[in-house]
Amino acid sequence: PLGRPRDLLSREYLRSTLQVWVLWFGVAFTYYGMVLASAEVLRLRNSEKSEHCTCVYLTTEDYATMLVSSLGELLSLPINFFLIDWLGRRISGGLCYLGTAIFFILIQLNVSLTTLTILMFFVRAFASASFNFVYIYSSELYPTSIRTLGMGIASAWARVGAMLTPFVAQVLISHSIPMATWTYGILCLACTVCCFLLPIETKGRAMPQSLSVERNGDIIEMSEGPPSDTSEHAAEEDTRVATVSGKEGLR
């Protein structure tokens, strides 16, 4: 059967859905915030050196800093490759958000341009790794019948975060860099807690296909195979099922 929007808020998925929405909002808010804040932080640093001109320009070193920091997204690939299947989805996601929070908060420090470049590099790396995590986890969380619906609504929350982040990355940061960086840091710490408290670990979990109308006690069963066949041969075979917890059984 086709999935319904209310299935995302069913008893089995309500908590997971709400936490996934927070994670998608947070990762887009932070990732695009870092993209926008990079130039603003460098501009504010240069404004302190400009005494006679109200126009503050970026220097060659500033553009090099932005280029090097953007290469941090390449580091997200090995981070996800080694952590997600080794530590599991929830722990690796939490570590990615935690790393983003720590390095984002450190940007407010009065450090050299080289050190600032390193901090921005790791913010981009962990933020990009967090983006990879939410895509992987969300696609594995929901059964096929509501997977597209679940990821679509979650992605909509990411767009909300992307629309709101310029007010922090370009407006608030121009008044106070510490206030802006702490805003991003606190949000990432909240996402870290959400990751560790996710009720379903999808590592090694069979990917369900659809929600079953049959209930076994308090556990809803989700069919893993193709639609039931009425042929005599199919009737003799057992149907594999996966529960919400990820365990497999026979029905």
TrEMBL record:
Residue ranges occupied by any Major facilitator superfamily (MFS) profile domain in the UniProt entry: 1-203
PROSITE patterns per UniProt: MFS (PS50850)
Composition skew (Basic and acidic residues), residue ranges: 230-240
Cell location: Membrane
MF-aspect GO terms: transmembrane transporter activity
Main localization (coarse): membrane
SUPFAM superfamilies: MFS general substrate transporter
This protein's UniProt keywords: Membrane, Transmembrane, Transmembrane helix, Transport
Gene3D superfamilies: MFS general substrate transporter like domains
GO cellular component: membrane
Membrane topology category: Multi-pass membrane protein
Domain of life: Eukaryota
Transmembrane segments: 21-43, 63-83, 95-112, 118-137, 149-173, 179-200
Region (Disordered): 220-251
PANTHER family: SVOP LIKE, SYNAPTIC VESICLE GLYCOPROTEIN 2
Name of the protein described by the UniProt record: Major facilitator superfamily (MFS) profile domain-containing protein
Classification lineage: Eukaryota, Metazoa, Spiralia, Lophotrochozoa, Mollusca
